Amino acid sequence: MKIAIITIGSELLNGSRLDTNSKWIAQNVLPYNGEIVSKISIPDTDQDIINTLNYYISQSLDMIICTGGLGPTHDDITAKTLYDYFKDAPIFDDDYWYILKGEFKKRGYDISNLNKSQAYRPSIGKIIPNTIGTARGLHYKKKNTDVIVLPGVPAEMKLMMKTTVLPMIGDLSKTSTSFKMYRTTGIPESHLYEKLLPLINKYPELDVAFLPSFLGVDIRISSKINKDFDKINNQLFSIIEDYYYADNEIELEEVV
Amino acid sequence: MKIAIITIGSELLNGSRLDTNSKWIAQNVLPYNGEIVSKISIPDTDQDIINTLNYYISQSLDMIICTGGLGPTHDDITAKTLYDYFKDAPIFDDDYWYILKGEFKKRGYDISNLNKSQAYRPSIGKIIPNTIGTARGLHYKKKNTDVIVLPGVPAEMKLMMKTTVLPMIGDLSKTSTSFKMYRTTGIPESHLYEKLLPLINKYPELDVAFLPSFLGVDIRISSKINKDFDKINNQLFSIIEDYYYADNEIELEEVV
User: Fold this and answer.
1) Which residues in B lie closer than 8 A to residue A97 (C-beta atoms)?
2) For residue A215, what pLDDT is reported?
3) DSSP H/E element including B229
4) Which of B172, B189, B217 corresponds to the end of one domain?
5) B34 neighbourhood in chain A, CB within 8 Å
6) B242-252 pLDDT, tens digit each
7) Which residue on chain A is closest to B31 by alpha carbon?
8) What are the phi and psi torsion angles at A65 (to 5°)?
């Protein structure tokens, strides 16, 4: 199923935050047969959020996953914008406010009135539970597109994906995809491509990407037709064996 | 000046690559008075590139920086798509082909005919030199928007930004921005916001962002009016002093 990611927050656009959430989401939807077809980062403004939702919904995607802007401060406008966008009338949730107050007390703080904004719940849409933070998620549907809204804090986003969103994607998906990455060194991209061309032509269902880096060229293959995937992998490996050095996906950029 | 980033490549959407380029670009345009207002990652297809260029050009941005898809293989369609988009008729560049052949020879390889695609140059647009790789960049203009196209390989992109694009942004920009980040711990976001509210109200030109993480809450301030910036910083520091622990921008996500 086709999914777009909208990450909301000026911190992603002024260089103060690296967007690691999108990569995590992209990797983790794959085994559930989700495919990220586009991802965009936008500032915390009503108009940017509305324009972007309109743009993606017009493209008939199966799901849009939004992250960020669910906190209690002035720049956290995502929930309010979504309520307006879906013409929803949120309800103050006394039970959740009681839980929130308890959580703050446990940590030794008085709760701020600002956190009241986080105690509303949608009346048309659904709540996505957050068991480790104060910002709960939202789930709406427009035309055939499920719109999911999650906090930007990575630990919270990941837990909510695992407990709620990934199982939902699994239920909604119909096809499955196999994929594998090979890392090579000591051969230019163009030569590697020439060597692999017969294999690429033989299996038109195979999606092959060449990813040059300063260490060499990585090859990523994927296929929605799984029955020949092991055979293709064996053939590919025998072609690139002399240049192959790893098949994991760890990147030097992530560890320096 | 307002800038959007388009990163082109399926590897950014299937979780095999972390987009570190965008963060680097966002940080490095700031001192030259550039502001990233949106960034999007899209697959290597003609239609995605054309739709996205149309979308951003319609928003009257000053500049669009595209990265990726300038290599020699089947999925590298960016240059071809841009030539068509700008109705350009590229010319085979014999001098550059001679240089490329020499570079391959130096590294001990015969050049592949596939690399011929990298030896074309635009006739309407301009070339952006690449002194450490084979893929040169492109520079077009449509309405008031400069469209810059760079390779996705980080070392090449960064060098081409430093030598050509950043000085261009400096020349085109008219305003300058001051910014600083403070990292705090031991205080909830809502309490921090309440403490800073008088300062936020006193300096309406100040842009204040609260960035929660599992270590605490970071505060990022920026202003286009530079004359009071030191005074504001001193006042802010005296308010958050008890919770402050660092002012650098190193993120744990980047080192684990």
Assistant:
1) none
2) 77
3) helix B229-240
4) B172
5) none
6) 998 877 654 43
7) A14
8) -110, 115
Same domain (yes/no): A193, A167: no
ipTM for the complex?
0.79
Domain count, chain B: 2
- What is the token pair recorded at B23? 């963060």
Q: What angle do CA B209, B215, B216 make, to 5 degrees?
A: 40
Tell which of A200, A211, A218 to mutate to test the B interface (max B CBs under 10 Å).
Answer: A211
Are the beta carbons of A74 and B37 separated by less than 8 Å?
no
Rounded average pLDDT over A10-22: 90
Give how far A143 is from chain B: nearest CA, Å: 22
Residue with tokens 């261009």, as numbered in its chain: B168
Half-sphere exposure of residue B53: CA atoms within 13 angstroms, side-chain side? 26
With beta carbons less than 8 A apart as the criterion, state whether B164 and B129 touch.
Answer: yes
Q: How far is B236 from chain A (nearest CA, A)?
A: 17
Do residue B38 and residue A41 have CB atoms under 8 angstroms apart? Answer: yes
Q: Measure in Å the smallest separation between the Cα of A75 and chain B Cα atoms.
A: 7
8 A C-beta contact, residue A153 and residue B212:
yes
Please check whether residues B121 and B226 belong to one and the same domain. Answer: no
Choose among A172, A199, A204, A157: nearest CA to A2.
A172
Indicate the residue of A28, A75, A104 with minimum beta-carbon distance to B210. A75
Residue B65, φ and ψ in degrees, nearest 5: -110, 115
The chain B residue lying nearest A153, using CA atoms, is B213
Residues A90, A214: one domain?
Answer: no
Residue B210 pLDDT > 50, yes or no? Answer: yes
Contact in structure between A95 and A61 (CB atoms under 8 Å) = no
Domain closes at, from A152, A172, A192: A172
Q: Using the beta-carbon criterion (under 8 Å), do B38 and A15 form an inter-chain contact?
A: no
Taking every pair of Cα atoms in chain B, the longest distance, rounded to a whole number of angstroms, is: 67
Residues B92 and B123 in one domain: yes
pLDDT score at B248 = 60
Judge if B192 and B225 occupy the same domain.
yes
Q: Provide the residue range defining the domain that includes B182.
A: 178-255
Same domain for B152 and B45: yes
Inter-residue contact A206 to A216 (CB < 8 Å): no
Using a CB-CB distance cutoff of 8 angstroms, which residues of chain B are in contact with residue A109? 188, 191
Cα distance between residue B26 and residue B11, in whole Å: 21
